[in-house]
C-alpha cells in the first residue's frame, strides 16, 4: 500500500522548540506558582522520558532531588517523572486548546514538508510543495473530491462548512469557484512533477486507446510507462539499492495517466489522431523519448502509427526513434486474445446447441440483476450472480458460462425453492430458462475447458508484473503451441496426460461428450487459429520481443531455447544481435554529437538525403542488410554485448531481482543498461488505459450532466497523480466497488433499462422466447435479437473486428493504411 506523503501523525517537535517557530510568545510564559526552589539540571533529559515526547514544547523539564519533573509552561501544573504522557496530552489539549492547536498545526506542516523532500524514486515539483506549505487543508479538500469524483458543489454543503469550522483548525475549501481554480492549479503543478521525472528517463512507452462516453463524447486516453531515474547519474551514484529504479512503492511498475483528451467531434482518422498525439508529446517533452507505442489493432491505429513515423519522426529523427529502427508499434496482447475469442463465439453461435444454451444463460444474467424479487432471493443464498455481458469484452462470455456451470446445481436448488413459494408469471416462465439437458451441459463444459487457457492469459495480462515486453515471447509462443494441439485434437489425436509441462489431455473431452459437439468447438478453435497466425507474423517481425528476453538476466539466451527449436532460437539470437549493433552505433553517434556540442536537429531536407537505416521499411529492417547501409561503415564495439551474453543466468529471480542485477552492473554495461530498463517497462497491453476508461465509465453517467469533459480530465489525471505520487495513504476507493455502490448502480440500471416488472413479464411470456437472446449494442443498451436472424446477427458481430483484420492483412503485405477509418468498438 502506498504511504501518504503528508502524514497526519504527531510530529517530532524537537525542531519546534525555538521561539521563532513554535508559535509561543516567551512574554506569555507561565509564572512559577511557588514551591521548592528549582534549578535545571545538566542532565535533565538523560532519561529519555520527555525529549522523545511530542509534548516537549508545552512542558519544561526540571530536576528536583535527582528526579525529573515536567511543568506546564502556561499554568505551572507539574507531572513527576514516569507520569503518563497521555494525561499530559489531555491537559495541553483541554486546558490550553488554542495554543495546542496552533502549535500542533505548524509542526505537523513542518514534518510533512520534510517528508516531501525525502522522496524515494519519484520527485515532486517545488511548486506543489510550496502550495502545500501555504495551505495544506485546501490540498486535503482536493484529495477528497478527486478520490470520490464528488460534485464540485460538495464544498458548499453546510455540513462540510461545519466540519471545517468546528473540528479543524484552518479552513477547507468552501467555494466551488475556489475548488475549480485549485484543482486546475494542482493539476498543472503535478504535470510539472511528471515533467521533472521524465527528464531523467528515456525510451519511454506510451499506451493509447479511444473510449466513447455514454453521452457520445470520445476521449483519447494516453498512459506512459517508464523506468525512473536511469538517466540521472547523480541519483544512481547516490542510491544504495535498485529502489531508485522502481516506483515509490518499491515495485517495478511505474505507469501514469499522461492525459485524457476529449476528441469532441473530430474524426478518429489516423492523421487527426497523429496530430493530437504529437501535440501531447510536445507538451510533455516526449518527442525525443518515445520508443514504443502500445495500441490495439484497429485500422486507424495502424494509420496513426504510419503518419507518426513517415510524416513526423522520420523527418525529425529523434534520439529514441533512431536506435529502435523507428518508434515501435506494440500490439495489445489483450486485444489479440479478445479478437480470437470473438472468432470462437461467432462460430459457435451458428450451432443450435450452443446458441440455445448460451441464450438462456444471458437471459438468466439479466433477470438476476433486474428483477428485484429474484435479485433479493438469490442474494440471500450467497450464490454468485452470472456476470452481465459486455458488447466489446468477449472474454466476459467465458466467465458467464463458467459461473453458470460451477453453480448449476446451486441455481437449480435455489429455483426449486423459489418456485414453491412464488407462483407468478416470471417464476413459471423462468422454469424454461433452467431446461438444460445433458448434451447442453457437456457442450458448455467442454467449451470452458478448451478455452480456459485463453482466460488464464487474459487474467495474467491484467497483472502489472506480467504485462511487460519480456513476457511477450512466452505469450505468443505458448498460444502457438496451444493452437497446434487443438488442431491435432481436431484431427483425432488422443492427448496423453503429462506430469510435467502443459497437460493438454483436457482436449480429449468427457466420454459423454458427443463427437459432433467436440468437432464443432475444435473447428471454432481452428478459425481463431487462422486469425492468430496473422498476429504471430507481425510479432515475429519485431525484434524487441526477442531482445527483451535476452536482456532479462533471469531468461537470457536460454529463454529463447525454452519456447522454440534450436535452429529458430539461433536465428532469433542473431536477429537480436543485429539490433544491438545498430543500437550501439546510434547510441555512440548520439553521444559523439553531444560531446562536440552539435545537438541541433538538421533541416528535414538535408536529413531526407541521408542513407540511414530508418528510411527503410520498418517492419523488415532487421532482416536485410539494405536497411543498415548508412551505418555499415561505422565501427562498433560489441565487447559489452558479448560479455553480457557470457554472464551466467540469474536463476529463480523476479522482475525486481532482474532490475537489481542491472543496477549493480550498470557501469559494466552502460549502453545495455539503458535499453534493458526501457524494455522492462514497456507494456504489451493497454490494460492501464482500459482501467482508466472503466473508472471514467462509472463516473460519466448520463445523469451527471454538469461533469463536463474539462472537469473530467482534471479529476481523472489529478486523481492518478495523487495515487502514483503517494498522496493517498492507501489505494483510493473505486467508485461503485462497495456493496452500497453496487446497489446504487443496480438501481440506476434498473430504472434506465428494465424500469418495470412488466418488461420482464413480456420478455418471458413471449412464445418465441426460447429463440431470443438479450444482447448489447455498442451504445450499451439492451435489445432483443430473434434467432431467425442469427446470420444477420453474426454478420454484425463480425463487422466489429473487420477493421482490425483488415489492418493485420495490410501489415502482412508490408503496407501501411492511411485510410480515414473510424475506430472499432
UniProtKB/TrEMBL annotation:
Positions of the UniProt region annotated as Disordered: 1-50, 784-825
Residue ranges occupied by any HAT C-terminal dimerisation domain in the UniProt entry: 642-720
Chain segments annotated as transmembrane: none
Entry-linked Pfam families: Dimer_Tnp_hAT
Compartments (UniProt record): Nucleus
InterPro entries to which the protein is assigned, alphabetical: HATC_C_dom (IPR008906), RNaseH-like_sf (IPR012337), ZnF_BED_domain_contain (IPR052035)
Origin: domain of life: Eukaryota
GO molecular function: protein dimerization activity; zinc ion binding
Name of the protein in question: Putative transposase of the Rover4 hAT-like family
GO CC terms of this entry: nucleus
Polar residues: bias regions: 16-28
Amino acid at each position: 500500500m502506498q504511504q501518504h506523503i503528508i502524514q497526519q501523525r504527531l510530529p517530532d517537535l524537537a525542531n519546534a522548540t525555538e521561539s521563532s517557530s513554535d508559535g509561543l510568545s516567551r512574554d506569555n510564559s507561565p509564572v512559577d506558582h511557588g514551591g521548592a526552589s528549582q534549578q535545571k539540571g545538566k542532565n535533565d533529559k538523560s532519561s529519555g522520558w520527555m525529549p522523545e515526547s511530542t509534548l516537549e514544547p508545552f512542558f519544561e523539564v526540571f530536576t528536583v532531588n535527582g528526579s525529573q519533573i515536567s511543568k506546564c509552561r502556561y499554568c505551572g501544573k507539574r507531572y513527576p517523572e514516569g507520569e503518563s504522557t497521555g494525561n499530559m496530552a489531555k491537559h495541553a489539549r483541554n486546558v490550553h486548546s488554542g495554543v495546542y492547536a496552533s502549535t500542533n498545526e505548524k509542526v505537523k506542516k513542518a514534518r510533512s514538508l520534510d517528508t516531501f523532500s525525502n522522496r524515494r524514486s519519484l520527485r515532486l515539483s517545488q511548486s506543489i510543495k510550496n502550495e502545500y506549505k501555504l495551505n495544506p487543508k485546501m490540498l486535503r479538500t482536493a484529495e477528497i473530491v478527486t478520490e470520490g469524483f464528488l460534485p464540485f458543489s460538495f464544498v458548499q454543503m453546510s455540513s462540510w462548512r461545519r466540519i471545517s469550522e468546528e473540528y479543524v483548525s484552518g479552513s477547507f475549501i468552501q467555494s466551488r469557484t475556489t475548488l475549480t481554480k485549485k484543482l486546475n492549479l494542482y493539476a498543472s503543478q503535478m504535470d510539472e512533477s511528471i515533467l521533472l521525472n521524465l527528464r531523467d528517463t528515456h525510451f519511454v512507452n506510451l499506451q493509447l486507446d479511444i473510449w466513447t462516453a455514454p453521452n457520445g463524447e470520445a476521449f483519447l486516453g494516453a498512459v506512459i510507462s517508464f523506468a525512473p531515474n536511469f538517466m540521472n547519474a547523480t541519483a544512481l551514484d547516490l542510491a544504495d539499492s535498485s529502489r531508485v529504479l522502481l516506483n515509490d512503492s518499491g515495485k517495478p511498475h511505474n505507469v501514469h495517466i499522461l492525459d485524457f483528451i476529449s476528441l469532441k467531434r473530430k474524426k478518429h482518422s489516423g492523421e487527426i489522431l497523429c496530430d493530437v498525439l504529437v501535440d501531447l508529446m510536445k507538451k510533455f517533452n516526449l518527442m525525443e523519448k518515445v520508443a514504443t507505442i502500445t495500441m490495439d489493432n484497429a485500422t486507424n491505429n495502424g494509420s496513426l502509427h504510419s503518419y507518426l513515423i513517415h510524416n513526423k519522426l522520420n523527418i525529425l529523427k529523434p534520439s529514441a526513434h533512431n536506435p529502435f529502427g523507428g518508434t515501435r508499434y506494440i500490439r495489445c496482447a489483450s486485444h489479440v486474445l479478445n479478437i480470437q475469442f470473438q472468432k470462437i463465439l461467432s462460430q459457435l453461435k451458428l450451432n443450435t446447441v450452443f446458441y440455445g444454451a448460451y441464450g438462456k444463460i444471458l437471459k438468466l444474467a439479466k433477470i438476476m440483476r433486474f428483477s428485484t424479487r429474484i435479485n433479493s432471493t438469490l442474494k440471500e443464498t450467497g450464490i454468485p450472480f452470472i456476470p452481465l455481458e459486455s458488447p466489446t469484452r468477449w472474454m466476459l462470455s467465458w466467465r458467464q458460462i463458467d459461473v453458470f456451470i460451477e453453480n448449476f446445481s446451486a441455481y437449480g436448488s435455489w429455483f426449486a425453492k423459489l418456485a414453491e413459494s412464488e407462483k407468478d408469471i416470471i417464476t413459471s416462465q423462468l422454469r424454461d430458462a433452467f431446461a438444460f439437458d445433458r448434451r447442453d451441459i457437456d457442450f458448455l463444459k467442454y467449451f470452458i475447458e478448451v478455452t480456459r487457457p485463453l482466460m488464464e492469459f487474459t487474467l495474467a495480462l491484467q497483472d502489472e508484473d506480467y504485462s511487460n515486453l519480456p513476457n511477450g515471447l512466452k505469450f505468443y509462443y505458448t498460444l502457438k503451441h496451444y493452437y497446434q494441439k487443438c488442431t491435432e485434437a481436431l484431427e483425432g489425436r488422443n492427448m496423453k496426460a503429462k506430469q510435467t509441462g502443459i497437460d493438454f489431455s483436457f482436449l480429449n473431452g468427457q466420454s459423454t461428450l458427443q463427437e459432433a459437439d467436440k468437432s464443432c468447438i475444435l473447428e471454432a478453435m481452428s478459425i481463431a487459429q487462422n486469425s492468430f497466425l496473422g498476429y504471430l507474423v507481425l510479432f515475429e517481425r519485431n525484434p524487441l520481443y526477442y531482445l527483451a528476453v535476452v536482456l532479462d538476466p533471469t531468461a537470457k539466451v536460454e529463454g529463447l531455447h525454452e519456447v522454440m527449436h534450436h535452429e529458430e532460437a539461433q536465428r532469433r539470437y542473431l536477429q537480436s544481435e543485429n539490433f544491438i549493433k545498430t543500437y550501439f552505433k546510434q547510441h555512440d553517434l548520439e553521444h559523439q554529437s553531444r560531446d562536440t556540442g552539435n545537438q541541433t536537429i538538421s533541416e528535414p531536407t538535408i536529413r531526407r538525403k541521408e542513407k540511414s537505416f530508418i528510411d527503410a521499411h520498418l517492419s523488415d529492417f532487421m532482416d536485410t542488410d539494405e536497411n543498415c547501409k548508412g551505418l555499415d561503415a561505422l565501427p562498433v564495439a560489441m565487447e559489452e554485448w558479448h560479455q553480457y551474453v557470457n554472464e551466467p543466468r540469474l536463476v529463480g529471480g523476479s522482475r525486481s531481482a532482474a532490475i537489481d542485477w542491472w543496477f549493480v552492473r550498470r557501469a559494466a554495461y552502460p549502453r545495455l543498461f539503458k535499453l534493458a530498463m526501457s524494455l522492462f517497462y514497456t507494456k504489451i497491453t493497454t490494460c492501464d488505459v482500459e482501467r482508466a476508461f472503466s473508472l471514467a465509465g462509472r463516473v460519466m453517467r448520463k445523469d451527471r450532466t454538469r461533469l463536463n469533459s474539462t472537469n473530467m480530465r482534471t479529476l481523472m489525471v489529478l486523481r492518478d497523480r495523487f495515487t502514483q505520487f503517494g498522496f493517498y495513504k492507501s489505494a483510493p476507493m473505486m467508485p461503485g466497488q462497495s456493496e452500497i455502490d453496487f446497489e446504487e448502480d443496480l438501481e440506476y440500471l434498473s430504472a434506465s433499462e428494465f424500469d418495470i416488472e412488466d418488461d420482464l413479464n413480456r420478455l418471458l411470456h413471449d412464445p418465441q422466447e426460447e429463440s431470443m437472446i438479450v444482447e448489447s449494442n455498442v451504445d450499451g443498451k439492451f435489445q432483443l435479437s430473434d434467432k431467425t436472424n442469427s446470420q444477420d446477427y453474426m454478420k454484425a458481430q463480425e463487422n466489429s473486428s473487420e477493421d482490425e483484420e483488415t489492418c493485420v492483412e495490410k501489415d502482412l503485405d508490408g503496407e501501411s493504411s492511411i485510410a480515414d477509418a473510424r475506430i472499432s468498438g
